C-alpha cells in the first residue's frame, strides 16, 4: 500500500544566516524570507500545519469564503501531498499556494466573498502557462470536491502551469455560509465567468501568460465546458473529467425511466428547482446547458477538448461525453433512447475532431466509476473508482496524456492567436526562467511526515469515502 502522504521536494526560499543568504525549506522558523538567492526580494510566507489544513478542509461553513486572507502571502498546502490519486505524486515538487478574493456579490442573504487559490512552483517564477481548475461537488458542495482537485494540482504545476482554482456559489445550504449558498444555477455559471475574467486581468501579476486552458472534475468539468462553448476565443482548450454535458438528454432519460440513480434525480431537482416530472426540456436552463446540441447548431470554431469518462459511472453516464464527442465530430448524436455502445477493452480512445491540432478526444475507461481519478488504497480501506490495478494504471496514463494535451492546446492557441487573450493581450512571453536568481533545479525536501500524520491523512480520505456512502443513502451527490 502506498502512503497517503507523498514525499515531495520544495523549491527553496532564502534567509539570512550569519550574514549569508542561504536556501532553506520554508516554514523552518525564520521570520524573514526572500525569493532570490541575494536575499533582496522579500516574500511573505506562512506555514500551514496538518491540523490547520484538516480544520480548514472540514469547516464546511468557511471553506472557499474569502475570510481571514493574509494578502500576498504564500504557503504550502498539505492537501497537495495527499497521494490518493490514480497518478502518483511521488517525485513531484510541492506547489506554493496563495489565497485571494476574486469576487464579491451582494445576495438576498448577505455579501458573498469568493476565494480563489493560486498554485505555482515558486513565488517568484515567471513565464508560466495559465490553467483554471474548477472543483466538483454537484454544484452543491466544496469540501471533498476541492480535496480531489488538490490531488491533481501538482501534476499541472510541475508541467509549468500556474493553477488558478476558484470557489463558486452553491445550490444547497450544506456548504459555505448563508450569503454564498442557495444560489440559482445561473449564479454559479456567472461565478465561473467572473473567475475567467479575473485570471485574464491578473495572470501577469502571478507570473503566467497565454490563453488559459481549463480543467474540471464533474460539476467543475461542466463549468469548464460552459466557458469553452460560451467564450471559445478566451480559452486554449479544456480537460473535462466525467462531465455532465447535456441536460436535455439527462432530463429525457429521467422522464422515460431509463435513468433512475437516486443521487442524479436529487441533483436534477436541485438544479431545476422543481421535481423532475415537472421539469421541461424547453426550459432555457436546460437548453443553455445542452452543449452537444449547441455545438451542432452554433457556427463556431470550438477549442479542443480532452474528455475522460468511466464506463461504470452510474451518476453521470458516459453517454454524456459520447454525445459531446459526436457533436464535435459532426456525427449523429446518440439518441436519448439508445444506449451507448460497449467500450472496447479496458480503455477506448475516440477522436472527436480530425482537422485541428490537438485533436479533441474522448477517453473511455471501462471499469472507471465517478471520480475515477481518485484511488484510496490504504491499510484501512480499498476504495478505487479507477477500477482494478490495470485500469488504475490506464487512468494514470490518461492523466499524463491530459498533460500533453494541455501543452499542445496552449501551444496551438499561442501560435494561431499570438497574445490575443480576450482583453489580456499584453502578456509577456519572452521569459520562461526563474526570476529568483537561483538554479531552477534547487530544491529542498518536504518530509513524508510521521506515521501519525500519515494516518490522519488516511482518515481524512476515509471520511470522504464515508461521506460518499452517506450521501448515497440520502440521495445526494458524492465527493465530486
Notable characteristics:
single chain; 480 residues; alpha/beta; 12-stranded mixed β-sheet; two-stranded antiparallel sheet; 11 helices; 18 strands; 20% strand
TL;DR?
The chain has 480 residues and is an alpha/beta fold.
Structure commentary:
- This protein is of the alpha/beta class and 480 residues long.
- 31% of the residues lie in helices and 20% in strands.
- The protein is built from 11 helices and 18 strands.
- The protein has helices at residues 50-58, 143-157, 185-202, 219-230, 247-256, 262-272, 284-288, 291-297, 319-329, 389-416, 451-473, and strands at residues 8-10, 13-17, 20-24, 33-34, 42-45, 73-75, 96-107, 110-120, 128-134, 161-166, 208-217, 237-241, 305-310, 347-351, 361-365, 376-377, 382-383, 444-446.
- A hairpin with a 2-residue loop joins β7 (96-107) and β8 (110-120).
- α3 crosses α4 (219-230) and α8 (291-297) packs parallel to α9 (319-329).
- The longest helix is centred in the C-terminal third of the chain and has 28 residues, at 389-416.
- The protein starts with 7 loop residues before the first strand and ends in a 7-residue tail after the last helix.
